[in-house]
Amino acid sequence: MAYEELVGRRIIITGGGRGIGKELAVQAAAAKMRVAIVEVIAEDLAATEKELKATGADVKGYLCDLTAESEIINTFAEIEKDFGGVDVLVNNAMFHDNADLLHTSVEIWERTMAVNLRAPFLTIRSVLPAMIKAGSGNIINIGTVNAKMMIGSDAYSASKAGVHALTRTVAVRYGESGIRCNTLVPGTTATPGWKERVVRKPKIFDDLKPWYPLGRVGEPADMAAAMLFLASDQSKWMSGSELVVDGGLLAGFAPMYRTVEGTD
C-alpha cells in the first residue's frame, strides 16, 4: 500500500541500524519520508546510512547511546535542527537478556530498563515540545507479545510492559495537542539478533512455528508494513492502541485446543 501523505514527513527511528529497525528505515525511505536513524553501533549505522543514501533516500544517521540522558537530549536537539522538526518518532531500540528473574543481576535489570523504558521516556520528552507547538505528532512505540503474557525473558518483558503503559499515558495526556501514540506489538521476528541462538539450535524457528496459527514466525517486513500504517493518515483516529502483529499467537496457543477438545 502506498501512503502518498508520508512523502516528506520527518521520522526518527531508534535502533535503526539493524534488525527490525533497519527494515523500518528502509521502508520509511521507500515511502520518501525524511529519515533520521539513531543507533549505538557505529558500523551498523554507517552501513545502513550508506545503503539508503545509495537509493537516493533523504536519510541521516546519528550515533547515540540511549542509556545516557545527555546524549539523547543533544542528539534529538541536533535532529530537530537538521530536519526542522519531527513528525513521527519510532521507539524501536531495545536490549534483551534471556535470564530468568532469579539469575538476573541488578546491572542487567537496570540496563534493560534504561534502554527499553527510560530511553523511550526521554526521547518522547525530547520531541513533545515541538509536537505540541506544531499541534500534531505521531509516536510509535515498539512493544512485544511478552508484555501481554509470560513467554520468558523476565526483565525484557517487564520493561516492555512499561512501554505499553507509557503509550497510553502519552495518548491520553497529549491527545488534546493533536499527538497520537500507539504501540506496535510484534511476535517472534526473525532478525540477526537471533543469530547466536540459531547457531546453537538451527531449527529454533521451526520449533516455534506450531505455536503460531499462521504457521511461521514474523519477518521485519511484517513490522515495517504495520509501522507505515500507524505513521500514515489511514490510522489517524487510532491512539493509545496496541496493533498486534503476531501471526495469531495472542489469539490462542495453536497446539492446545486440539488437546482440550480431544481431537489431537
Summarize the structure.
The chain has 264 residues and is α/β, with parallel strands linked by helices. It has helices spanning 19-30, 42-53, 69-83, 106-134, 154-174, 195-200, 204-208, 220-231, 256-261; strands at 10-14, 34-39, 59-63, 88-91, 137-142, 179-186, 242-245. The protein has a seven-stranded parallel sheet with strand order 3-2-1-4-5-6-7, sandwiched between helices.
Give a description of the structure:
The chain is of the alpha/beta class and 264 residues long. It has one domain (4-261): NAD(P)-binding Rossmann-like Domain (Rossmann fold, 3-Layer(aba) Sandwich), CATH 3.40.50.720. Helix content is 45%, strand content 14%. It contains nine helices and seven strands, in the order βαβαβαβαβαβαααβα. Strands 3-2-1-4-5-6-7 form a seven-stranded parallel beta sheet, with helices on both faces. β2 (34-39), α2 (42-53) and β3 (59-63) form a beta-alpha-beta unit. α1 crosses α8, α3 (69-83) runs parallel beside α4 and α4 packs parallel to α5 (154-174). It is globular, with a radius of gyration of 18 Å. It starts with 9 loop residues before the first strand and ends with a helix.
Which helices and strands occur, and which strands form pairs?
Layout: E1 10-14, H1 19-30, E2 34-39, H2 42-53, E3 59-63, H3 69-83, E4 88-91, H4 106-134, E5 137-142, H5 154-174, E6 179-186, H6 195-200, H7 204-208, H8 220-231, E7 242-245, H9 256-261
Parallel strand pairs: 1-2, 1-4, 2-3, 4-5, 5-6, 6-7
